[in-house]
Design goal:
Layout (H helix, E strand, L loop, with lengths): L18 H58 L2 H9 L3 H10 L2 H5 L4
């Protein structure tokens, strides 16, 4: 069985009276190749998007779980423990901790 290229080599032979047809045939082959490349890339992108969507879903679930755990730990911690913890934080982290642990939240979270 002889190797057959996906194109006809005769398409590339120039003939004086058929040069316009040769250009059209070459353009058609180029267009077909571009369509194949586009289809392959679209498939690859869709596959990657699905993987990323799944990772985002898992991360959102993990974040929610950690937020619930954090809230519970803050509720169960004594004021002294919270103060000690906050004193160990960097200035940026302290600003965030103060914003998320306001007195209104502490007063409303009795155990």
């Amino acid at each position: 069985m002889a190797f057959q290229p996906p194109y006809s080599p005769s398409l590339f032979k120039r003939k004086a009276n058929a040069s316009g047809a040769t250009v059209v045939a070459i353009d058609n082959k180029i267009e077909q190749a571009m369509d194949l490349v586009k289809n392959h890339l679209m498939y690859a992108v869709r596959e990657e998007v699905e993987i990323l969507k799944e990772q985002i879903k898992e991360l959102v679930e993990k974040n929610s779980q950690l937020e619930r755990e954090n809230s519970l730990l803050k509720t169960l911690a004594s004021p002294e423990q919270l103060e000690k913890f906050e004193s160990q934080l960097s200035p940026e982290e302290q600003t965030t901790a103060v914003a998320t642990n306001s007195p209104e939240q502490d007063a409303g979270s009795a155990v």
